[in-house]
Each structure stands twice: as structure tokens, then as C-alpha cells.
């Protein structure tokens, strides 16, 4: 049993990482973070005894982030995926191509979708996430 978390460099990514860490501790299972950004993942907010494996992207030309997450699910026989989602307007919901939306639709395992706290909604996304 493994939990995979897709982590963007955003408030939603931080919320997903925290929720996934809680799930992994609760279920006493390994946690794998797929870093969707292009900078190192800061996991210092997790408990010091939290075991986490980080899978980093190599660069902008690296494979599609959704494929990277789905590959990790398959390779590690994961049982749960945790993603961060944005609060979106009705017009925003019509937009296609969202990483979170694609993961929700393509994931072969249950998905826990986490929203960021309202005060974090104004964070500017850096790279590769939603």
C-alpha cells in the first residue's frame, strides 16, 4: 500500500502534501511525492519521522506531469492519490487541460482532492500545477 501525492508549487500543492502525509501516517504506509514543479520540493513542514520519497521532474521538456503521476501509481502499486484543487469560477470550470482535472479522470485508484485554506487562495503558482 502506497500513497502518491501530486505536489505543485502552490497553496494547493502544500495542502495536498499535508493531507497526504496525514493519510500516510494514519494508514502507516509509504508516501511518494511527485514534484510537479521545477524547483526542489520543500518537505520541511512534515514531521521529522515522516518517510517520504520525492520524484522530481528533470526540466520543462520532461514528460507530461499527468503521465509522471500515473506512471508512479502503476510502478509503485499505489492505493490512493492525493491532489490539490483550486476553487474555480463557473467559467474556469469550462477550461480543459487542468492537471488536477486530468488526474481525477484518468486515475485508476481513489483520489483525495484537497482545497487550500481560503487565505492561501491568492498564492501565485510557479510551475506545473493546479
Which helices and strands occur, and which strands form pairs?
Layout: E1 3-7, H1 11-27, E2 31-35, E3 52-56, H2 65-75, E4 80-85, H3 99-106, E5 111-115
Parallel strand pairs: 1-2, 1-4, 2-3, 4-5
Protein name: Universal stress protein
Pfam families: Usp
Family: Belongs to the universal stress protein A family.
User: Number of domains in the coordinates?
Assistant: 1
User: Main β-sheet: number of strands, strand sense, barrel status?
Assistant: 5 strands, parallel
- Helical run tally: 3
Oligomer class: single chain
N-to-C SSE string, H for helix and E for strand: EHEEHEHE
Helix content: 25-40%
* CATH architecture assignment name: 3-Layer(aba) Sandwich
- Enumerate the spans where pLDDT stays under 50 for 5 or more consecutive residues: 123-130
Cα radius of gyration in angstroms: 14 Å
Any idea what the shape is?
A: globular
List the strand order in the largest sheet: 3-2-1-4-5
Please, what is the average pLDDT? 84
CATH top level?
Alpha Beta
Q: Quick one: how many beta strands?
A: 5
Distance between the termini: 26 Å
Would you give the CATH topology? Rossmann fold
Tell me what portion of residues adopts beta-strand conformation. 15-25%
Class by alpha and beta content? alpha/beta
Give the CATH superfamily. HUPs
InterPro entries: Universal_stress_UspA, UspA
Domain UspA: 47-115
Pfam families: Usp
Protein name: Universal stress protein
